[in-house]
Prior knowledge:
The chain is built from 17 helices and 33 strands.
Amino acid sequence: MSTSWSRRGFLATSGGTALALGLTGTFTAGSAQALTGEATADDFAALRAKWRTLILGAGFSPTAEPFKSKLATLGTNAKANWDTMAPADGSLWPGMVYKDPEPDTDQESYGFSSQIQSSFGKLYTMAEAYAQPGSGLTGDAGLKGAVITGVEHLYTQVYNENQARYGNWYNWQIGAPQSLMDIAVLLFEHFTAEQIAKYCRAVDHFVPDSVMDKYTGTSTGANRVDLCRSMILRGIVGGSEQKITLGRDSLSPVFPFVTTGDGYYADGSFIQHTSIPYIGGYGAVLNDGLGRLFALLRDSAWQVTDPGAQQFLDTVEMAIAPFVYNGLMMDNVSSRGVTRGLVASDPFQLPQDDHNRSHGVMGSIVLLGKGASPEQQARWNAMVKGWMRRDYYGTALENPKLSLLRTSQLYELEADDAIKPAPEPVEHRVFPNMDRLTHRRRDWAASLSMASTRISHYETGNGEGLRMWHTGSGWLQWWGADHGLEQYADHYWPTVDPYRLPGITVSKKPLTDGQGGDWAGPRPDFAWVGGVTDGEFGTTGQQLRGIFSTMTAKKAWFWLDDTVVCLGAGISSADGAGVETVVDNRNLGASGAPRLLLDGSAQPTTQGWSTKRAGTKWAHVAGHAGYVFPGGTTLNALREERTGAWKDINRGSSPKAFTRRYLTLWQDHGTDPADASYAYVMLPGASVARTAARALDRDWLEITANSPQQQGVRVPSLGFTGVNFWEAGTVGKVTASAPACVQIREKRDGTATICVSDPSRTVTGLTLTWKRPVKSVTSKPGAVTSVETGRELKLTFGDLSGSYGATHKVQVRTV
């Protein structure tokens, strides 16, 4: 990795960062310093100083890159805010009207309330430029006066203890008070005591103690952490021990695992808004918020001592890391956040893509590591360094939008030669409580998105996520170590055909933008969604009902060493529209034209070209992947240029148009199909030779079933058998007495691992029979109530309905 900075120079200027932040040492319950008597003014001043460092950063040289350029940009933006600030009735900046003529909670009022938060945000930028060295406005008295004038204007006009809320609750309880309190910390000595008191009264009004009374509604998960931050900072600014204590103690409900609703689950799932997987959105906010609050309160009278905090630290590896691959945060856990593209006023003109979305997360992990055990910190630092080193597309160290704090943390990590980058793990992870999974290899990774009675197809709200309808219909993302990292980052979402996301089976029935309405979170009526894993390979199934559609299907995936085997059956619809299964849809950038081979024959590279080719055995896209179609299929292929703007999918984004090229492969099931099916094998990163050889090797894969009742495969060379029993029955040598997902892996050492789950969460008893001689069962979970070995293995399971779709693993010794 080449950079324009000096490692030795950076180390010389950053060595005091951990000390300045007060982050050294390991989190231990009960280790807080106890104060005798009441807290003093010095105690609150110390917390303000620490928070100042946590929002500004520390230990970097303002004359060294990239900090010099970042600070200059900060100064430019602050000067522009200053120059255009024009206090008036109902606004602080022209065009940013917050005065609502008909205050209520409709979409129009949301727009007005958002301008309160945005106005405070502009003032914070000005305050930061005043406080940061090297901004060109450092210590500028005129700028300081403008910030104070602006805060006074907003207090007098709208953000005060007599104002009733309208629009979006978030702007009043989280967005505005956080910026206001951050400004108060940065300019604390320049506000009068009366000014501080009245700003605190305003926060008390909008964020009363009662918001912490119950862990429900908008006071859960990441929102609860943000509310606690608002309250803790109000306590620090206003000198209230009670507010800090209440804010700290109100974090405790966030730590335990949940079994329904918002929060972290024992399997690593994270849910917000009841049914939305959100590790890359609200989960990242929660992670960052807790990291900063842990650091702020550590070694004070209010240190977080709840033992559950350690359980939260464990979520870094069990919940967050599986969705970060080579420096990007997978889009399928960021929901409507992936449509937050260009904003017209953004001086960088950079969308919030999967790469820069991960950069803040990486900084948060480094910050959290300073309070974790030495072993955890070492693993996390190596993990983050590996992600940064392997990201060839959108590197964190060159992200102009990354905060100075996060930039300094990641540069310090990069400069430490004692920290060696960790490689990508080889693992398969299932997250049954959010209908997601990840499959990771050294040279590629994939992730699957599904929907069920528990998890929504998609989310729209605040004008965002308008065309993400089909992201829960078996959307299969994948990336290579040295290719494909730009797939979803290069203006994908405004330009892709939303009916042709990779992997989905979909009705082409036209849908309207945001269909279903804000926050509706439409869910299908099928519960059988999930799978099993032995930690390396996996078997997955989705009983699919299309969103706002009559289309139904049974979809299955089998995750192997270099391959994903994909099956579909029972595909039926009565929408009066065509139904397709999208094998893949590659974003080729602005000018890409990789060669496409169909059964070894090169196809045209001209835009607008298409074909429908019967009997296709295999396809290969140069630099991307190979695809094998067992028994042959009629394959459709299309090269096209598509143009779109971020405003098309997010009403608050830029209307600037972008054009990107796509190469799409799909199977057409026709209009209103009845019991259609498909089968294909995807080989990410495979060469032409490997793809052709796999297509010719008829012994490599046996499709043992592909019907609405069961779907299964067997790969003898890997000792692999996987079956989705949608109904009781027999497939090959495996019989299940009830619906279940089953996977068996035989090893050459005479052992085998049998994995079973109940994705439907309805099975109260299951007998599984494997017609294979077995000597003994060497380990089994408590769910197994009886075992019979000998000429065949018979396992009896008790009630699986309450196991939340988890994998039950049985180890046996074969004859």
